[in-house]
Amino acid sequence: MTDPLERLKALQGADLPVHGGRTLAYVYDCGDPEVDRVAREAVAAYAASNALDPTAFPSLLQMENELVGFACALLDAPDSAVGTVTSGGTESILLAVQGARDSRPDVVRPRMVLPATAHAAFHKAAHYFGVGAVLVPVGPDFRADAAAMAQAVDDDTVLVVASAPSYAHGVVDPVTEIAAAAAARGVRCHVDACIGGWVLPYASRLGRAVPPWTFAVEGVTSISVDTHKYAYAPKGTSLLLHRDASLRKPQYFASAAWPGYTMLNATTQSTRSGGPVAGTWAVVEHVGDAGYLDLAGRAFDAVDAIVAAVEREPALHLVVQPDSTLVTLATDGSCDPFTLTDELVSRGWYVQPQLSYAGGGPSIHLSVSAGTLPHVAELRDALSESVAAAQAAGPVAVDPGVVAFIEALDPAALGDDDFDGLLAASGLVGAGADGDLELPTRMAEVNAMLDVASPAMREALLVAFLDRLQRPVRGGRP
C-alpha cells in the first residue's frame, strides 16, 4: 500500500512553491524556516480542537483575545474596541457587510457605497446578503473619489468602504475624507486592510509615507486585517475589528429554535478548527513587534528594488507608485503582458495577470514578501530576459472568429454546448483521452481571449471552467 504522506509529496510537486520568495500571489513568505516550523507544530497540536464553544476550549479563546489585542495596538484602536478571528479576509468582509445590514432593520433596501477598486469580496457580500453595491469610479491615481462617494450616500446606505490598500493597484484610499462623509450621515465606515493591515503600521514606523487609515481616523468603525498575509501566519485566519462592542453585536447569530444546543456564533462558521488560530497565535508570539518591524523593512526593501528594476526596463512602467507591498506594472506596445507573465512563470517567478477593466488595459500584479528580498537580483534578471522574450514573440492575437463568437453570446443564457464551445475556443479544455479537462502550460492565449470578453462573459466562462475542474475521481484514485 502506498504511504499517503509520500503520495501527498508527489501530489504537491505540481503546486506553486510556498517558500523561496518567488510566488508573488496567493502566499506570503517571511523567509524564515523557524517561523514555518513554529506554525506547523502549533497547527498540528490544535488540529482536533473546535473553536465553536469557547467554554470547551478556553485556550483558543485566550489566544483569539490576545491576537485581537495585538491588532488593536497596531491599528490605533480605542480601549472600547473589540474583534473577532475569522477564517480569512473574505469572511471578515462578509461579516462587516452583514453586521452593517442587520444594524439597520429600518432600511428595506440596504446599500453600500464602494470605490470601483474595492475587493470583489464586497460583491460577494452583496450577492449573499441582498445589500446593493453602489460602485463609484476612482480618480486617475486609482484612489477612491471621496467627494463622489459622499454624494452617493443616501438614506438607504448602511456602509461606506475604503481600502488600505486596494488589491489591484496597491494604493491607500483617502480614508479621512471618506470616513468623515460617512460619519456625517450616521453611516458605518469599513476599511478593508486585509492585505495592508499588518504591514502599513510598520511602514509608517520605518518612515515611509502612508496616508491615515487606522482607527486614529474619526469615523472609521471597523477594519479587516488578514493575519495569514503579512503576519506570515498559516492560512485560515483574519481579524475583524470594531471600534466598540455595540458595532459588533449585530454580527452575532444565535438560535434556540430547535431541540439541540442553542447555536451561538460570532462568525459565519460554527465548527472552526483550532489549528489556524493556534498557528497564528504561535507565529505572532514568536515574531513579535520588533520582528514584524524587521520583516516589514525587508519587504519594503524588496518593493523598492523591484520598482527600480521595472523603471529600468523601457517596455515596462508602474501603473501607480505603490503605497504598500503590492506592485502593479504594465507594458508598452512592444511587449505583450500575458506573454511576459508566461515568460516569468517559465523562469520560476509566479506573477498574477490582471485583465482590462473600465477602460484600463491589462496589468501584472506582484504581492511582495520579506522572503523575496534575497532573490530580487534574480527577479531583475528574469524580468529583463522575459521582456526580451515577449518582445521577440510578439503580441498575442485572438482569432476574429472567436471574438465574434464571444460577442454574439448572452452569458446569462448559455447552455452546456455554448460553454463547451467557449472552453474549447479559449484553450481551457484540451483533448484528453477521455474528454477530460487538460490545463494549458502557457496562459497568454487564454488570458488574451478573456481580456476581449466582457466581465459577465469572463465570469460565465470561468464558472464553467471551475465546474469542469471539480469533478469526482470515481473508482478509486487514478
From TrEMBL:
Entry cofactors: pyridoxal 5'-phosphate
Claim: Lyase is one of the keywords in the record: yes
InterPro entries linked: GrpII_AminoAcid_Decarb, PyrdxlP-dep_de-COase, PyrdxlP-dep_Trfase, PyrdxlP-dep_Trfase_major, PyrdxlP-dep_Trfase_small
Alphabetized UniProt keyword annotations: Lyase, Pyridoxal phosphate
Pfam families linked to this entry: Pyridoxal_deC
Alphabetical GO biological process terms: carboxylic acid metabolic process
Top-level taxonomic group: Bacteria
A GO term for molecular function: pyridoxal phosphate binding
N6-(pyridoxal phosphate)lysine: residues bearing it: K229
Family of the protein in this entry: Belongs to the group II decarboxylase family. Sphingosine-1-phosphate lyase subfamily.
PANTHER family: PTHR42735, SPHINGOSINE-1-PHOSPHATE LYASE 1
Record protein name field: Glutamate/tyrosine decarboxylase-like PLP-dependent enzyme
Source organism of this protein record: Nocardioides cavernae
